[in-house]
User: What shape does this take?
Amino acid sequence: MKSQTIFITGCSHGGIGYATAKYLKELGHRVFASARQQKDVDALIEEGFETYRVDVNDYMQVDTALADILTKTSGTLDAVFNNAGYGQAGALEDIDTQYLKEQFETNVFSLHNLTNKAIKIMRKQGYGKIIQHSSVLGLISMKYRGSYNASKYAIEGIADTMRLELKGSNIFMSNLNTGPVTSKFRDNSLKTINNVDTENSAHTKSYEKILAGAHKKVPFNEEAISVAKVVENILNSSKPKPRYYITKATWIMVILKRLLPTSVMDNFLSKY
Assistant: This one.
């Protein structure tokens, strides 16, 4: 196995980015890990990672990290994993447009920013791999996750278009359509329900059920290592696939969407 260099965003402890960074580092890859909060950066440094404090919404921090990485690697970077992102809980009618904009700033616009900068590096060197962390919710929609759904659908559109525009460049773009995976994502997402006026909503009873079942076991849940192994597969592949379905939940939802009429699928999804 050839050792490769990879820049991963969103590597706070307990998340998918961290699990992936740790796994790839143990395999001998050179991992440049970033996190938004200093405490996570300090923890990563203690574990021996080459680490940067990067809030992906701060494009200057992204530029600084990339510049330092290129200095350390003599100007090359094999792969970028756009992992940073978060979920916003609540019915779309209850979410102020401000919060939808913030969702897109982090999950979409910042991803596009780093992607464009990575492509410039990779076009110059003549190769590269860009991994976009989408979701099963970039393929199917579920209620009370509308803001997150919309951001992940946007990532699907970006990746589908850019793959066509990158054809023949030896730069590959892959989406990870991840289903339920053990991380802090769900807990962090539920905290954002504070942005919603739950007491004066048509969905008040639903919010009560959501909060009551916050720690309920999710069907088909897998550990974060499932994602890390797919990223490893992409690094080792000469021609990565455009899309990787991760967890049985993703496969089930995708198959059902292909087979069922929209009205039937809506009835099915409305139960969850």
Remarks:
- Strands lie at 5-8, 30-35, 50-53, 79-82, 128-133, 171-178, 243-246.
- DSSP finds ten helices and seven strands in the chain.
- The chain has one domain: 5-247.
- The longest strand covers residues 171-178.
